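Bumping my old thread because nobody answered last time. Still need a sequence for this structure:
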C-alpha cells in the first residue's frame, strides 16, 4: 500500500471505528450511565450531545439548530475533502503531516455528521476528570478531529519556519 492509499484509507477506517465504538456504547451502556475505568480520572459514560463541540447550541430548539449544525458540518467536510484531494495531486508540495491531519479531520467529521443526520445528536462516551474538574465527554471522532487539527497547525508552524529560513 502506497502513502497515497494509506492516507485515503484513514477517513473510511476512522468512520467505521467511530461507528463501531458508538454502537458498542449505545448497546451496552444505558443512557447517562457512568462506568468508572480509572478511579478519579476516567469513566465511560453514555451521553447524547445535541449541540456542537462542548455542547454549544445543545439547549437551542427548532429546525435552525439542526440546519446550522448539519449544514456547517457538511460544508466543512466538503472543504476538507477538497483540500485533501488537492494535497494528494501529483506535484503537490504538501507534507504527509498535513495530509494525515486533513484525513483525520475528514474521518472524524464524517462520523459525527452521520450521527447528527441519523439521530439528531452525537453519542459521546469518554469522560476525563480530576476531582470536581472535568473535560466535556467526547468520542473517537472528536479525538480524530482534535489530533488532525493539531497536526495541521503543527504543519503550518513548521512550514512557516522552513519558508522563513529560505
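Sorry it took so long. Here it is:
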Amino acid at each position: 500500500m502506497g502513502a497515497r492509499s494509506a492516507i485515503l484509507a484513514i477517513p473510511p477506517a476512522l468512520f467505521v471505528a467511530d461507528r463501531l465504538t458508538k454502537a458498542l456504547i449505545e448497546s451496552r451502556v444505558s443512557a447517562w450511565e457512568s462506568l468508572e475505568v480509572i478511579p478519579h480520572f476516567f469513566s465511560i459514560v453514555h451521553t447524547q450531545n445535541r449541540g456542537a463541540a462542548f455542547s454549544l447550541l445543545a439547549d437551542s430548539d427548532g429546525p435552525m439548530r439542526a440546519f446550522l449544525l448539519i449544514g456547517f458540518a457538511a460544508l466543512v467536510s466538503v472543504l476538507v475533502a477538497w483540500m485533501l484531494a488537492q494535497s494528494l495531486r501529483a506535484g503537490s508540495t504538501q507534507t504527509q503531516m498535513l495530509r494525515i491531519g486533513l484525513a483525520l479531520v475528514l474521518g472524524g467529521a464524517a462520523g459525527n455528521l452521520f450521527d447528527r443526520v441519523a439521530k439528531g445528536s452525537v453519542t459521546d462516551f469518554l469522560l476525563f476528570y480530576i476531582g470536581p474538574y472535568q473535560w466535556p465527554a467526547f468520542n473517537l471522532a472528536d479525538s480524530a478531529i482534535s489530533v488532525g487539527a493539531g497536526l495541521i497547525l503543527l504543519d503550518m508552524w513548521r512550514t512557516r519556519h522552513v519558508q522563513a529560513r529560505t
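Residues 3-165 form one domain. Let me know if any region looks off to you.
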